[in-house]
Amino acid sequence: MLMTTPLSPVTLTGHLVRLEPLSHDHHDGLVDAVNDGDMSDRWYTSIPRPEDMAAEIDKRIALQDKGEMLPFTAIRQADDVVLGMTTYYDIDPEVPRLEIGYTWNRQSAHGTGSNPESKLLLLEHAFDTLGCECVGLRTQWVNLQSRQAIERLGAKQDGVLRANRRYRNGALLDAVLFSILRAEWPTVRANLEHRLRHRIPAPVQA
Question: Please, which domain of life does this record's source organism belong to (predicted)?
Fold first, then answer.
């Protein structure tokens, strides 16, 4: 299909996590999520502080209206607990391509499989529905945990943008760029499905 902007809001549903279009209805759940592990205290990230959450939602929705972003709230399927946020951004329908980023999840959800499944859902929609030729991901040089997580997806490192912008504390940020091409997507999908195979609940026998 031909990608057009703004991208249409959509709910992406997996076994462990559901990605819903971001709205102010998620505000209190997102505040609870960011307080789980004091996520916003990580100086090298852009995770919003609890008191800034409403403004962050406003900002992402405004960028969605301009066709520059499609933001999601990640919700755990088992109990509808809000886990965090993720986003399509840097959307270019001419290629077409986009990036996945501005992602964070509550501390207690780390290592549960929810983030890999979120990436699987986002990549499936990007490649199989939106027809992307390339999906980018980026993180900060100092965020080794995030770099390793992106590499585990099967993304290839494209390079490092030195002194790309500043952290909110004023320090200079080096951005590490990764990407997945359409030709690489089947291998990336197989890897993610393999990683998730022990996380997905077995079907109930009749």
Answer: Bacteria
Could you tell me the CA-to-CA distances from 137 to 58, 90, 154 in Å, in that order? 23, 10, 11
Angle between helices 185-196 and 144-153 (to 10 degrees): 110
The answer, yes or no, to whether residue 24 has pLDDT greater than 50, is yes
Cα–Cα distance for residue pair 196/113, rounded to 1 Å: 7
pTM for the structure as a whole: 0.91
Q: In what order do the strands lie in the sheet with 17-21?
A: 12-13, 17-21, 69-76, 82-92, 97-105, 134-140, 172-181, 156-166
Give the CATH fold of the 12-194 domain: Aminopeptidase (3.40.630)
Distance from C-alpha of 106 to C-alpha of 119, rounded to nearest angstrom: 16
Q: Cβ neighbours of residue 122 under 8 Å, at least 6 residues apart?
A: 12, 19, 72, 86, 88, 100
| Domains in the chain: boundaries | 12-194
The residue to which tokens 């080096």 are assigned:
174
